[in-house]
Give the backbone structure.
Amino acid sequence: MFSLLAKIKQILALRQDVDELRADWEKVKYEWEEWFERFKRLHAKIARRQQRDEQAPSGEDTRPGGELERGLSTLSPRARQIQAEILAQRNRGKPNGGTG
């Protein structure tokens, strides 16, 4: 009789372990699907950018921020003025940006 109770306890423990493993597996599966979707979106974004680069006339920069690399600014006139003032103040400051 005691061996039967011991077997029942073992079976219940195994059942609990299986249930926990199933729950863990579902979490892993969900995380994998989420990462895979991110990868697919990133891959599609890269493919679109590559296609845009291939279709663009040579010498034209289609990368985001390409305007900044060529020296053109996307800032508004007011923002450009503020940026120029900040740079002027920095240039009037001490060498190496020291304050002391």
